TrEMBL record:
Gene3D superfamilies: Leucine-rich Repeat Variant. HEAT repeats lie at residues 496-534. PROSITE patterns: HEAT_REPEAT. GO terms for biological process: establishment or maintenance of microtubule cytoskeleton polarity; microtubule polymerization; mitotic spindle organization. Residues 2-233, 271-559, 633-867, 890-1079 form the TOG domain. It holds the Pfam family CLASP_N. GO terms for molecular function: microtubule binding; microtubule plus end polymerase; microtubule plus-end binding. This is TOG domain-containing protein. Coiled coil: none annotated. One of its GO terms (cellular component) is kinetochore. Residues 232-261, 552-632, 864-890 are annotated as: Disordered. It comes from Lactuca sativa (Garden lettuce). InterPro entries: ARM-like, ARM-type_fold, CLASP_N_dom, HEAT_type_2, TOG, XMAP215, XMAP215_CLASP_TOG.
Length: 1081
């Protein structure tokens, strides 16, 4: 027995602590292996050994010897699988040690460290985990920060927001956005996108965007488009796993209950933010002084200051009684004499003047001596009822903000302020009505008030002399009922039904309708049965109306699909589950595949393990199922076995030779043997796989590299079908050959051959992802120059022009390498030849120097027309699936503007203020301009409906502006305008009946724009109707005939012209010299 074996044997007799901390690393290594085996054998988490062993890991995982550290992590993983939540007592110290010693280690060590963190989360030690992450992200070494972000991403992604609180992660992100390392920034963006999936985009944007730089905001806005899909946890904490196991043994309940339990709850932004103290800054401000001022502007400024502070999403609880008293009542010292009061100098203060007039009239009494000139009177003024509307509105809004920010902590104050808010409903000014509605709804939504709390106030309000107060109070109650649960309504409906029944006899229709709305809302929630007794007094007509209102929108039960399966700790900790990194959430990045279990040559390895492994590889759709373009794994031995009958064994052996001459000769022999194959198509993929492995793309000799490319090119050009999977196998190594001048020509020729086989669109898509990853400017330049030649050879019919333009603008032109920028400009010039001048609009916001260069390049490549035939074509079998845009101008991307035209915006077209109407039209023009005058028809039907009304505007300038706007929309939308416009052309033609020549010219210009994007035959039915319209007028008909003559002249054939004969004949009956002259011409 050797000394080493004897040492290890003797060491096994030592206690665990002595073995694990032994000075000999082999002893420590052996101890960790034994410890892992021991933990694997423990089946009871309450075993005493679990409690004893936990204290050792703090030191073992900090071992300076890397192999020992790995074994220590294996032992810790086994321990955590065997333990339960009681082991959490060691979480803080162990996680600290891991963060300090393991996150900068070897990739396998980092992976195991992350696995340990996930197991701590599974054991509900989330607080300790996040405490350590807060320290880890502050590490000066960026290499340690990225794994920390990734493990938070994994924890949130797998366990969900119920287990991993998003609030703590949100606090960590702002400092990561400004990190100097780009990998840290990319990971932080990925983590932000994952948060969007769990707590919603709006919540993330409102909390984080204000803390970001503008550049980061822009980047994240672009990425937020990809943050889709409902997030569901895929892994459960240990206690839940144990419960599931018990249910399986005993017999679980219905599957539907489990599905319902896993429905993701809506996250309340209020719970994600920290409370803000507003009382302290309020004390330091002039609020308490200005709020009592006699000058309305000072009062307004005081309340504005409070409103600004109260707009915080969450307000720290405190004593707000005095603030509410100030909002309700403020003492104002005014120097007023009885004479001034009698003269009406303070008539604006109506209530106060009445009080003082009474004081003056009763001054003869001994109890009310006449005040001396200049004596100060104490005016009691309510800010909510302030005579100045601006002050009053601000006060109401401040109450609403306080309710939203304090929630239940504002309940007492809400009950204190409610009567005066309901009284204020008599105010008919829109700004005040809107502020009151928002505040009252906010009070109920924030649970400051419940329906049970407001019964007495509602009873008082519905007896108010002003009908407006009665109806709006009931409308608010209806809203409260609709937003309450069934249990609440069952408790209070007996209080509200009598109130509503009494209001049904009100003399004002609005009050009666509001009462019906409350009853209908109650009926929808609790049903008609609890209301039957109360509704017996209703006549048949009212009962029928109420039944109809309740039945209008009967709520159907929403079905919940089965939830996805969850991952156990055993599954999650073995090597079969793919671990995503945070950066993989960004567009163009996918998680790396799991490592193969056997000795295989992965698809990425066939490309010489270059950076082509990194870019994501999307699937392209064919006429049937999506084609699988990702090659699977295959070992070299398997490849050789499948090629035994096709390629001589000696040829394959020579391809592996260390001598380049032999490899070169072998490639020539290989090519000859391929040429001799009778059925090449069946063997294309296996032949390509062999070349990718031996000699492979990483061969150092130029001659061999050139021969590999030539043989691949020969196979691709000879085979009748060369699949996209084969292209993916080759492209990972081929793109780097473009950087070398000695192999660039062969590589470009090979890529062109690939394009003929699968279409250039697929090649472009892969290239874009590669160029986003790699940093070599020579490679980028080579790829871009090939793209230029591809556009010249194939045109743009097979390209996704939006992706090409976005890449040129955001990646190519932004490159720090001048060669890359110049190549990008050449690509834009090549696109201009096929697309036309409209493409320049997409680059209008780049730097002036770049814009000048783009325009110069476009001049060198003039537009040749959309019908220009390409030099090369894609093989017929793939042509249909490769064509993505149809080519020409229609291939340019169009922007969806539906989100920019909400209902509130459309209402502004009907404003009584002509300036607002004009501004709305100008806003549409701006939206079209920002979309580079290329828009989708989505959401434009309502927009055209709003514009239709403005064609009849009393203000002629607005009518002409509308015509210009419609003209711009037609040009920007293209042929789709015919369906989206809903016949607005007939309304446009009626504008020819205007006496002003300028109006008619504007109308004709709109018709020119319309006929440019649609065909004249689509317009003939509208024109025929217009010609017979007596209101059109002589001049209008003449102008329309002149326009028609110009459009019909030069048309060789126009079958729809026959439908114009009858309208023309009718028009000839108009005996007017000028009209007939125009008709004949």
């Amino acid at each position: 027995m050797s000394e080493e074996e004897k040492l290890l044997k003797d060491a096994k007799k030592l206690p665990w602590e002595a073995r694990l901390l032994h000075k000999n690393w082999k002893v420590r290594n052996d101890a960790n292996i034994d410890l892992a085996a021991l933990c694997d054998s423990i089946t009871d988490p309450k075993d005493n050994r679990i409690r004893e062993l936990g204290r050792y890991f703090k030191k073992t995982i900090a071992d300076s010897n890397a192999p020992v550290q790995d074994k220590a992590l294996d032992a810790l993983i086994a321990y955590l699988k065997a333990a339960d939540a009681d082991a959490g007592r060691y979480a803080k110290e162990v996680c600290d040690a891991i963060a300090a010693k393991c996150l900068t280690g070897r990739p396998k060590t980092v992976e195991k460290a992350q696995m340990v963190f996930m197991l701590w989360v599974e054991l509900e030690a989330v607080d300790a985990f996040l405490d350590v992450m807060e320290k880890a992200i502050k590490n000066k070494v960026a290499k340690a920060v990225v794994p920390a972000i990734d493990v938070m991403f994994q924890a949130l992604s797998e366990f969900g927001s119920k287990v991993v609180p998003p609030k703590r992660i949100l606090k960590m992100l702002p400092e990561l956005f400004d990190h100097q390392d780009q990998n840290v920034r990319a990971s932080s963006k990925g983590l932000t996108l994952e948060l969007c999936r769990w707590i919603g985009r709006d919540n993330v944007k409102s909390i984080l965007f204000e803390k970001m730089r503008d550049t980061m905001k822009k980047e994240l806005e672009a990425e937020l488009v990809n943050a889709t899909g409902a997030a569901k946890p895929t892994r459960k904490i240990r206690s839940e796993q144990d419960k599931e196991l018990e249910q399986e043994v005993v017999g679980s309940g219905p599957a539907g209950e489990e599905s319902a339990a896993e429905i993701p709850e809506e996250i309340d932004e209020y719970e994600l933010v920290d409370p803000v103290d507003i009382l302290t800054p309020l004390e330091k401000s002039k609020f308490w002084k200005d709020v009592k001022s006699s000058k309305w502007l000072e009062r307004k400024n005081a309340v504005e200051g409070l409103n600004k502070l109260a707009s915080a999403k969450r307000i720290a609880p405190g004593d707000f009684i005095e603030v509410c008293r100030a909002l309700k009542k403020s003492e104002i010292q005014l120097c007023v004499s009885p004479v001034e009061l009698m003269q009406g100098q303070y008539e604006n203060y109506s209530n106060e003047v009445e009080l003082m007039m009474y004081t003056a009239n009763t001054a003869k009494s001994d109890n009310y001596p006449i005040p001396r000139e200049g004596r100060k009177f104490l005016f009691s003024m309510q800010l909510v009822m302030d005579v100045n509307l601006a002050v009053s509105v601000e006060a109401v809004q401040a109450i609403g903000n306080l309710a939203s920010g304090l929630r239940t902590h504002f309940s007492a104050s809400s009950r204190f302020l409610l009567p005066i808010l309901l009284e204020k409903l008599k105010e008919k000014k829109p700004t005040m009505a809107e502020a009151l509605s928002h505040t009252l709804k906010a009070m109920h939504k924030a649970k400051c008030l419940t329906l049970a709390d407001i019964v007495e106030d509602v009873k008082t309000a519905v007896k108010n002399k002003v009908p407006h107060v009665r109806s709006l109070t009931l409308n608010w109650v209806a809203n409260c009922v609709e937003t309450s649960n069934k249990a609440t309504i069952l408790k209070v409906h007996k209080d509200y039904v009598p109130i509503c029944m009494e209001c049904l006899n009100d003399g004002t229709p609005e009050v009666r309708d509001a009462a019906f709305s409350v009853l209908a809302s109650i009926g929808k929630i609790v049903g008609m049965r609890p209301l039957e007794k109360s509704l017996e007094k209703l006549d048949d007509i009212r009962r029928k109306k109420l039944s109809e209102m309740i039945g209008i929108s009967g709520s159907g039960a929403s079905t919940v699909g089965p939830s996805g399966g969850t991952v156990s700790s055993a599954q999650a900790s073995d090597g079969t589950v793919v671990k995503k990194s945070a950066a993989s959430m960004l567009s163009g990045k996918n998680p790396a595949p799991a490592a193969p279990t056997g000795k295989k040559v992965a698809s990425g390895k066939t490309g010489a393990s270059k950076k082509a492994d990194g870019p994501s590889q999307s699937q392209t759709k064919t006429s049937g199922q999506p084609e699988d373009v990702e090659p699977g794994e295959m070992s070299l031995e398997e490849i050789e076995t499948r090629l035994e009958s096709l390629i001589q064994a000696q040829t394959i052996a020579d391809l592996k030779s260390n001598a380049w001459q032999k490899r070169s000769e072998a490639l020539n022999s290989f090519k000859q043997e391929v040429e001799a194959l009778q059925q090449l198509d069946k063997s294309v993929e296996i032949l390509i796989r062999l070349l990718c492995v031996v000699p492979g793309w990483s061969d150092k000799h130029i001659k061999v590299q050139q021969l590999v490319i030539e043989v691949v090119n020969h196979i691709a050009s000879t085979a009748s079908k060369f699949s996209k999977k084969c292209v993916v196998l080759c492209i990972g190594g081929l793109y780097e050959r473009l950087a070398d001048i000695k192999t660039r020509t062969q590589a470009m020729k090979c890529l062109t051959t690939f394009s003929e086989a699968v279409g250039p669109g697929f090649i472009f898509e892969r290239m874009f992802k590669i160029m986003k990853e790699q940093k070599n400017p020579k490679i980028s330049e080579g790829l871009l120059l090939w793209m230029v030649s591809a556009v010249e050879d194939f045109g743009v019919a097979h390209l996704k022009l939006k992706d090409v333009i976005d890449f040129c603008k955001n990646i190519g032109l932004q490159s720090s390498a001048s060669a890359t920028r110049n190549a990008t400009i050449k690509l834009i010039g090549a696109l201009h030849k096929f697309v036309g001048p409209d493409i320049k609009a997409f680059f209008s916001d780049v730097k002036p120097s770049l814009l000048t260069a783009v325009e110069a390049e476009c001049q060198k490549n003039p537009f040749e027309g959309a019908g220009t035939k390409p030099k090369k074509t894609v093989k017929a079998s793939d042509a249909a699936s490769s064509s993505v845009s149809g080519g020409g101008l229609d291939g340019l991307p169009r922007e969806d503007i539906s989100s920019k035209i909400p209902p509130a915006f459309l209402k502004e077209f009907e404003s009584s203020n002509w300036k607002v109407r004009l501004q709305s039209i100008e806003a549409v023009n701006k939206i079209v301009e920002e979309a580079n005058k290329r828009i989708q028809p989505n959401g434009t039907v309502e927009l055209f409906g709003a514009l239709r009304g403005r064609l009849y505007d009393s203000n002629k300038n607005i009518t002409m502006a509308t015509l210009t706007c419609i003209s711009g929309l037609a040009s920007a939308m293209g042929p789709a305008v015919d369906k989206s416009s809903k016949g607005i052309l007939s309304d446009v033609l009626k504008c020819l009946g205007d006496n002003k020549k300028q109006m008619r010219e504007c109308t004709l210009a709109t018709l020119d724009s319309w006929v440019a994007v649609t065909h004249l035959d689509k317009m003939i039915p509208y024109i025929a109707t217009c010609l017979t319209d007596a209101k059109l007028g002589v001049e209008g008909r003449k102008d329309l005939f002149d326009w028609l003559c110009r459009k019909l002249t030069g048309l060789a054939e126009f079958l729809d012209a026959i439908s114009l004969l009858r309208p023309v004949a009718i028009a000839m009956t108009v005996f007017n010299y000028f009209f007939k002259k125009g008709l004949v011409s």
